[in-house]
Fold this sequence. Notes:
By secondary structure, this protein is of the alpha/beta class. Helix content is 35%, strand content 18%.
Amino acid sequence: MDINTHTPRPRRADRRRRGLAGRLRRLHRFACESAGRACGPSVERVGRAYRRVPAEQRRNVGLLALALPGIFVMLTPALSQGIGTGAGSAETPLSAAAAPGGATLEAAPGAEPGTAPGAEREADAAPAPGAQPEPAAEPGPSAPEARSELVGFYVNWDESSYDSLAANIGELTIVMPEWYTIDGGGRVKQLDAKRQARAIKLIREKRPDLRVMPIVNNFGPGQDPKALAGKLEKRAARKRMAEDIVRTMRDGGFDGVNIDFEGLPASSRVDLVRFMRELYPLAEKHGLEVSADVLADSKTYDYEALARSSDYLIPMMYDEHWKTSPSGPVASQGWYERSLREFFSKVPPDKVVIALGSWTYDWSGGGSRAKAHTYASAMAEARKAGVPVKLDEKSLNPTFAHRKGGVHHRLWMLDAVTMFNQIKAASGSEPRGYAVWRLGAEDPSIWRILPKRDGLDAEAAASLETKRRSIVYDEERGLIVGARTAPR
Length: 488
């Protein structure tokens, strides 16, 4: 089912540009390896630089790349700036670059380590003791060039997130790690330098070409969204935050930044757009991509204006029912399709990376405060209770109920089946890509279908069947309409 209400924009030219940009990246990687050098994020930067070349000059650049691949060996020192932990960059200092309005950027103090957040995030549950995750599918090689983006959200505070990144790094095109936050003074604060360095080492060793775009958020212990709202009201504070973010990403050698400002009041709608208008041109000047996470159907976000001040938006297509709401599906198929259709009416699909969830909410005792589970810990609960997980026919979300200590529990889940249906419903609109919140909380079976995300079919659906899980696939709708996972 195509949930877009308008004809998708032609993307042939875009694919042609990506193909040539990919050729440049492959030549650069080949040149690096031939010279015995490590190829860092410059592989992607070469591709991005090519896409900025005027159309009439691209053919000449492409021919030059084919005829003189060795040139990349000579250019590597100038083009390469590997990802790091915040060390200085060989590029022109920010203090020497003109900021919007002609002002210069001041030097910022070094970021200090902090404690990792997680208390306020919707899916922040770490695996329960004794939970045994199912083995993940074998990762393939680096993702092909001409595919939609696949973003993995990564967190420091759950060891399972590191394990998932290590196992599935070959499938990702971008990783967005939760490494930075905005402190009470409006400055960028590093959350955990030691764990960040560990993840960077893994990326360097296993996927040096993987684009890294850290998250900068506004939540964590002791943080109040109202404080950020106050900063966004002031032009000088907005400018300082934008400069600090760009400086941090540039000096870290990253490829871009993901802005994740949540919990803001509707009154911050205009100020948030003003901030992005400060940030985007400054980031672009330093070769950094900019994305922003937005809630679906929220008055806080001016989707059209934010899309114009970023490379793309990431709508979080979940939390139809959330931690503090009455129990219900996390993202029923009907709600998801309506929400996405509405979003596409405001933002073109080629500027949208759809965030999909893979976790569980557990409501107990008829209350309206849910506990978040990873997929592994939710399945551990089902095994202990000896009950199967079934796909609800109406919402197409998995659910199960049980009693524990005399208290009734109702659990609603997002898993590989819901992700299949969500991607299938969106694929006809050709979005820019998909994002998984989050690595480490997911149903391991999603890695069986994500490599096929641009062409999900009956065969892909059948790949989700296991000894414990049976499915029913509706050929006419192209969706999985029935599923049952046995507890053992």
